[in-house]
TrEMBL record:
Low complexity composition-biased segments: 614-629
GO MF assignments: ATP binding; protein kinase activity
PANTHER family assigned: N-TERMINAL KINASE-LIKE PROTEIN, SCY1-RELATED S/T PROTEIN KINASE-LIKE
Name of the protein this chain belongs to: Protein kinase domain-containing protein
Disordered, as annotated region: 595-678, 690-794
SUPFAM superfamilies per record: ARM repeat, Protein kinase-like (PK-like)
Boundaries of every Protein kinase domain copy: 2-285
InterPro entries (alphabetical): ARM-like, ARM-type_fold, CIK-Related_Protein, HEAT_type_2, Kinase-like_dom_sf, Prot_kinase_dom
Bias (Polar residues) ranges: 598-613
HEAT-type repeats, residues: 524-562
Amino acid sequence: MFKFLQSVVAGSGTGLKDLPYLIGEPYSSAWGSWVHSRGTSKEDGSPVSIFSLTGSSSNDGHLAAGRNGVKRLRTVRHPNILSFLHSTEAETSDGHSTKVTIYIVTEPVMPLSEKIKELRLQGAQRDEYYAWGLHRIAKAVSFLNNDCKLVHANVCLESVVVTQTLDWKLHAFDVLAEYDGKNQAASMGPMLQYEWLVGPQYKPMELAKSDWTTIRKSPPWAIDSWGLGCLIHELFYGTKLSKTEELRETSSIPKSLLPDYQRLLSSTPSRRLNSSKLIENCEYFQNKLVDTIHFLEILNLKDSVEKDTFFRKLPTLAEQLPRQIVLKKLLPLVASALEFGSAAAPALTGLLKMGAWLSADEYVVKVLPTLVKLFASNDRAIRVSLLQHIDQYGDSLSTQIVDEQIYPHVATGFSDSSAFLRELTLKSLLVLAPKLSQRTISGSLLKFLSKLQVDEEPAIRTNTTILLGNIASHLNEGTRKRVLINAFTARALRDTFSPARGAGIMALCATSSYYDSTEIAARILPNVVVLTIDPDSDVRSKAFQAVDQFLQILKNFHEKAEGGESGGASSMGISSTPGNASLLGWAMSSLTLKGGKSSEQTPLAPVNTSAPLTSAASNASSDTASTTTVGLSLGAETADQPAPVSPTSTDGWGELENGINDDNGSEKEGWDDIEPLEDPRSSQALATIQAAQKRPVAQPKQVVNSKPKIAANVHKNDDDELWGSIAAPAPKSVKPLTSKTTAAADDDDPWAAIAAPPPTTRARPLASGRGRGSKPVVSKLGAQRINRTSSSGV
């Protein structure tokens, strides 16, 4: 027979030319004279099962019974009956005789006896699996007997096969016939035309005696109930039944099943237990596996409370069930329920828990397609659950899937009205950003991050800075030059939220290898140095560390330049500093851990500025689903900080703040209009000092300040060129650099009139008074006499 199958694969056989399937290796067992072989589809390579039956002539009795089985299998449809796909007959000739073969193509299945040996289940897990399988076969038999009025007449171990999802299914319909107990005309003839195919060990007494009168007077389930008893015996004893007397041995039958087993094998046909009653009343079928699968199969009939309760218990329950059944049966059911919207959001936790037990290849096939489809869901709870667990499956996503199918749906969370969802979306980019194309990063992602840097929630602003520092390595060089310094200095370092300023400092340190010496000296250090007097001690500590780090970089550049090792190039990053790789990871983790500490440690003051939100201290890679909340309030240490500037204020920063808000709708990512600072030119500074020395001393108008501030000697045009339209407000946390001195002391200061402006800070002039409508003091060149009045009015 095997040689014959090989010849079929080679293309011989006149009836198989149009068969769209290839026949493979046969299994070692099958029902009756059939041969059960593996097969594949020629069209897509999908697996199938192919049953073949060969007869010596077209009038062979086995072939006639086989044709009856094909007809019955094609017309009878039930979830627990083998699914029919295709059938054909073929004639083959060896030169002396002609043989006819019937082929039946079905869904891919495996003989139950071989699957049991493969699973090797023991103890309670074996009993649970057997209970579930017998429950399925009993349903199939009940359907045939009670609903269709059909008699299978050959229920046994060989007539049961197992699908790829470990479902048990009934087949071998060659003997199947209608129950004609009420047909008086046929009372003398046999009801089962092909009963001779049934082995004598499986026949009840009335069938063995061919007592058709008794059979017709018996209920339709009498013969098949006896067959169920034979199946139970073979299942628990692990051997094929050889004679009817073996059915009396019950030592291996579970005690909870034994009473029903004995009723199935009653010697009186009318007293045999109906298979439908076996399903309803048998205590053996009441276990966790059967209940779990049954709940998932009727999930659409359950209310939301029942679903939520079930799926919250599912991760724990899955650990107690047979692992192979969980992966091959429960996991596909949960995935299907999520795809079609019948499952609640907690089901995603169970899906990921079960998916973690799969191999990498199986995970891509069985879990990822469902997750990708769920990103298009409008259910906010599903979206939140996907983002909270993205670290569990993010590494398995391909670059193309992330860029084309997932990111467009994730990006909608950036503008969501829920601050919690916006922050989860932001943190998910730590996993997704490395898989995005440069076109998506530059054309879409940076636009959203630019808006989030001015979000109303301070923790979101802080985490945006953290994210930029982490994904800097995935930006191209041009984008890094245009975005990083502007984002960290013009926004993060000027934020009113102290953890946001600390995040900006640490992000600058972590990305220091991307800045050349000119950028460090002219754009970074001036903005960091001012934070060394920040009211927040944590910010001050970070600022001093950053100053030391960047000064060391400049010193290294100077030493190499002096030694002739540098050919004039001004690029000298921290990449040459030992320990840079560890610094990046330490900087980010320290930032997320300490981002909320200052606020958490600050005593609460009776100021209505607190707004609970997920703290920046919550790490994006944390495995816990819970989040830490931080109350934002002004404490004793930060009580002197001025309140955030209103967009309509006229203290000199309101216009720039409005510029930030207007820029959010720009087509650019929000940092393009900030031009790099010009290189400091010592010759211009020297010329300014010399011109000041030659000018006559001019007496400026006296300005009385309640709180004197230093006005930077920088023209407005230079300031506009520096910050553009999106510059953030001045850091409200920085105390003014003034000392309460008398006018006489100012008169005696010979440097006050000719001091050159700081060449790198380029700060916008501050208002002389704190009232609205006050104008900044216009600085003049030349020696000047400045009369100042202390805050006390003296």
